[in-house]
Amino acid sequence: MEKVLEVKNLIHKYDDRIVLDIEEFELNKGEVLALVGSNGAGKSTFLRILNLLEKPSQGKVKIFGIVPTNNKQKHIFRRRMAMVFQEPLLFKSSVYDNVSYGLRIRKKNKNSIKNKVLEALEKLEISHLINRPAGTLSGGEAQRVSLARALVLEPEILLLDEPFAELDQPTREELRHNLYKIIRRENQTTLHVTHDRNETLVISDSVALMNKGKIIQRGRTEDVFNKPINEFVANFLGVETILYGKITSKREGLCIVNINNQKLEVVSDLEKGENVIACIRPENVTLLKYSLKAPLTSARNSFISTIKDISSYGLVYRVVMDCGFNLTSFITRESLDRLNLKIGEKIIASIKATSIHLLSRK
Fold first, then answer.
1. Is the model's pLDDT at 294 over the cut of 60?
2. Of 4, 23, 135, 204, which is most buried by a Cβ count within 10 Å?
């Protein structure tokens, strides 16, 4: 794969405080990478360094295999990228003037500018706003204009610094879906900074998780979410059930883990005798009606559980159960009604052995 951004041994300080310590990082052509982490993790600072807006205290940033060494080179490489910030930062002039600005300073001809602007506005579904003053736009409309202003330049690298953070939920979801279609259709290389797990799942095909200035896990989105490298990553990425236990036996890759005298069967490479942390994502817990008969499920783990709490969680419901340990499941409204769930009643919770991720607890 062609590396479009590459970082090695980068350290960045504010005064004497280290805010970034990145041993290695790369972004490949066509990749859509989410850079996630809590507020203050260093994500936005790292993005500014990659966009050559700040110079690192130590280390080099390679862009298309070259380390820019002077202002002329930096200017050339910066023009091959486009960045969208949390705030739209629009001029007070019309939408057309805002979107065409980058093309005008690149001295493109008027017909080319007009055609490209019209195309960008159509992509972002804001053609009807072309003559509107930017100051009259809603938050969602303004951010669409900001995205159009970046995409009209046909950047080789698109950098997004939490562009949806200030938008209301419906607007955020609509714009996120719109942008996702554009990125995928055009094979747009993208680095997207966010602390929103849903955005990460919807938009990215890979993810890097940052904490205290360091990248602590990097990989395919599905792998990172389902196989967190440690308890911090598991917590941050929404693993609702984190359990402590010990592997008491193992046969043909199937581990038996003792947790509060309950037996959990897990497929894992870890060995007998190890103290472990079991990570269970709520969407991997299936609920079945309680019956005295054995439940009809292929899952190796089935527990008779007592419902402790039911609460709305966006588009799903969060069900917390006691099955000798606390276990959380996400279910739809349809499932909630079909199972007729009530606090205090019994339910069967089942989990596949391949849906549980074990971490070694040193």
1. no
2. 204
Amino acid at the residue 361? R
> Do residues 133 and 9 share a domain?
yes
Q: What is the pLDDT of residue 314?
A: 79
In this predicted structure, what is the pLDDT of residue 90? 95
Please write the tens of the pLDDT for every residue from 138-167: 999 999 999 999 999 999 999 999 998 888
pTM value is: 0.86
**Does 166 share its domain with 312?**
no
Cα–chain center distance at 106: 33
pLDDT at residue 292, rounded to an integer? 61
Do 269 and 178 share a structural domain? no
pLDDT at res. 291: 77
Which of these three, 212, 234, 256, is where a domain ends? 234
**182-234, pLDDT tens digit by residue?**
999 999 999 999 888 878 888 899 999 999 999 999 999 999 999 999 999 99
Within a 10 A sphere around the Cβ of 332, how many other Cβ atoms? Answer: 11
b/e sequence 114-147, b meaning 16+ C-beta within 10 Å: eebbeebbebbebeebeeeebeebeebbbbbbbb
Range of the domain at 200: 3-234
Furthest-apart CA pair in the chain: how many Å? 77
Please check whether residues 113 and 261 belong to one and the same domain: no
Residues 6 or more apart in contact with residue 290 via CB below 8 angstroms: 304, 345, 346, 347, 348
CATH (domain of 262): 2.40.50.100
263 and 345 in a single domain? The answer is yes
- If asked whether residues 283 and 140 sit together in one domain, one would say no
For position 207, which CATH number holds?
3.40.50.300
Q: For residue range 166-180, list pLDDT tens digits in order.
A: 888 888 888 988 999
Task: Indicate whether 132 and 11 sit together in one domain.
Answer: yes
Based on the number of CB atoms within 10 Å of its own CB, is 216 exposed (0-12), middle (13-18) or buried (19 or more)? middle
